[in-house]
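Forum: Protein Structure Q&A
Topic: Joint prediction for protein chains with partners

I've read a bunch of threads here and the consensus seems to be that you should model interacting components together rather than docking separate models afterwards. I'd like to see that in practice. Below is the full input, 203 residues plus whatever partners are listed. Could one of the regulars post the assembled result?
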Amino acid sequence: MRGTVVGQVWATRQAAGLDGRKLVLVAARDVDGRATGRVVVAIDTLEAADGQDVTVAFGSGARNVLRAGPDNRDLLCDAAVAALVEGAG
Amino acid sequence: MFLGRVVGTVWSTVKWPKAAGLKLLIVRPYRLGDLAPGEKPTAAGERPSEPVDDLVVCADALDAGAGDDVVVAFGHAARVALSQTLAPGQKPEVPIDAAVVAVVDRVSVAHGQL
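Posted by a regular:
Agreed with the consensus. Here's the joint model:
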């Protein structure tokens, strides 16, 4: 998914697998670059700042961002920032 | 994952045995217009401040309640979160595809980023 980082989420009461993870809010964009209204929460290991255009991977692709598989099914991760986008056409 | 607000609870008397005792919550996902009222999605047909997304039923092992903002994970990540809380060390074999993974303390939204 292509989107833009629009914020961050903090929680102290959370599943153990999220400890130490940075959670960012990413607003999805459609094929024309317009915001669709959908917002996802993704684990960010790439230090994406507010306003940064990013791609988000889901599912096993998201786990591979945190630790390349196949032995990564212990990770609590279904969405992760996979790339910082510099341009799109 | 998505950010949402707990708006209710589901009771169920017939559940798969491995899901017995699990609390089920109804969560309404936040959309961009809810978080940043000035940022209007421009795609045709979008009505940003209304709950246009389906409500999501998710398992909760973190004791969230109505009015709490939560992060919900889907799929295998949801089962991993539940097994960490309910059955550490065991394989996450519960028939659940969505679970609360965090009860949110604070959200920052950067306005003017779209």
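The longest helix of chain A spans residues 59-66.
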